[in-house]
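I trust your eye. Have a critical look at both lines of this record:
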Amino acid sequence: MNLKILSYFFFVGVFLLITFSSLFAEEKKIPLNASERKLLEQSRIEVPSHYIEAHDFEGEMASGKKASLADFSGKFLILNFWATWCSPCLKEMPDLDQVYQSLGPENLTVLAVSMGESRERVRKFLKKRNYSFPVMTDPEMEITRLYGVRNIPITYLVDPSGVIIGRALGPREWSEPKLLKFFRSRMNRQAG
């Protein structure tokens, strides 16, 4: 009899602990205010429904150096997945470069991850263009899979704290004034 009572109280205690700990647990929120959410949504940039930290990864830059997401910690990051054969990707790359030249590289980085192509192919492609932002190669598509990329171009906006605050599927006009103002406000918030 005592064992049944003890078992009962044990299970009730565990149930209450789980119930109340989830009620009082502090849920992390996406660091965006209502006007920032609206601006992103008007720019066809999807705001995540819940708090998501960007997955760290390591890869080889087109230059041959190794780099990881952590190397860009503390900066606003525009993480773009693309390929040399993707015409919509190529359409937005000059715009991404304009953003990088205007606002980076101290507080903002555009990191373009070339998916499924060799470093040599990407280097040949880049030789014909004058992009100033860093380019990482992902020949085995490990980073691509980590981020669940199926269609390109796709771009993630990563807050300086490492939180994903937006995702854009398809090309965008990244240098449009309202987005530049948004990027500056996020950078100023981090610097201040």
In short: The mean pLDDT is 86. The longest helix spans residues 2-24.
